[in-house]
Amino acid sequence: SALILIVTTRVSKRITKNDAKAVALRQNGEALAMASAPMIFNSSAIISGVFTVTEHRNKGYSRVVIYKLIEELKRAGVAQCYLWCEKTLEGFYQKIGFEKIGYIYKETEL
Fold first, then answer.
1. What integer is the mean pLDDT of 83-96?
2. Among 11, 16, 42, 47, which residue's Cβ finds the most Cβ atoms within 10 Å?
3. Rounded CA gap, 13 and 26, in Å?
4. Burial class (CB in 10 A: 0-12, 13-18, 19+), 55
């Protein structure tokens, strides 16, 4: 059956206030892949929550939802999109157009 790309508008209170966005790729009511931008501030957004269900990986679904999410963010006035990922995924994100600009560190003693 057909794949359906949905721009999610009712995920949380932030989504309905237009300071967050999410995109899901679904088939037969099942989510196959998703990407979200839970924080939009001024003209920047942070992309996170990118996933593809294990049995549907390597079909380009993450790329599809990321590109659609970026399209929706630009439509909403976002000029810059950022994301952070595991080191093993850096090549994937660079391949689809992201540039590595640094690292994020976390406190380990808290």
1. 91
2. 47
3. 22
4. exposed
* Beta bridge partner(s), residue 40: 45
Q: Which long-range contacts (CB under 8 A, 24 or more apart) does 43-48 make?
A: 43/77, 43/78, 43/79, 43/80, 44/78, 44/79, 44/80, 44/81, 44/82, 45/21, 45/73, 45/78, 45/80, 45/81, 45/82, 46/81, 46/82, 46/83, 47/81, 47/82, 47/83, 48/83, 48/84
- Kindly report, residue by residue over 7-38, the tens digit of the pLDDT: 765 555 656 566 788 899 999 989 899 999 98
d(CA 6, CA 29): 11
